Amino acid sequence: MADDPRRVLIETVARIGRETQLHLDERARHFWITNLVIIIISLLLVILAVFNVYYVRVLYKDLDGIVQNMDSMHHNLSEVTGNMSTIAEHVQSIDNSIQYMDNISIHTAEMSQSLPRIGNAMSDMAVNVDVINQDMGLMTFSLFNIEQRTGHMTGNVSLIRQNVRQIARPMGMMNSFFP
């Protein structure tokens, strides 16, 4: 029989149909693999998001603890400043009392004319008292300097506390969104 033109057409259409079906099967397999990869990546992203929320919450709690410690430190430094002021006043009082020791050394010199042995001992004491007087003056100045520096530290701690609160405030707002 001679080649029927319809038969060639039917074979061509059948061949195209088989090729199309093979192509569709291969595409379906590739789509299945792609969907599986997308699902795995989505699950990993969800797990990562849960960990990130947890770490943000831990960071917020840590920053809150730091702010509370800074508040406590500010309070304690304020008390130290008050105590240093009291100590400086007491040292000033001692310094004022030591200034009267010069008068005592003068009277002791007068007594040394009648009592030479007591006079020698008292003159040594007068020298020591003058040294103590000088040392107390230096100590008074040092304590006032310490008091000023403690005041500066208290101010700086207050600024740090405020800055940490400003950092922690956005974290606190995020707590209402996350568990």
UniProtKB/TrEMBL annotation:
The chain crosses the membrane at residues 32-55. It comes from the Bacteria. GO terms for molecular function: translation initiation factor activity. Keywords: Initiation factor, Membrane, Protein biosynthesis, Transmembrane, Transmembrane helix. This is Translation initiation factor 2. It comes from Sedimenticola thiotaurini.
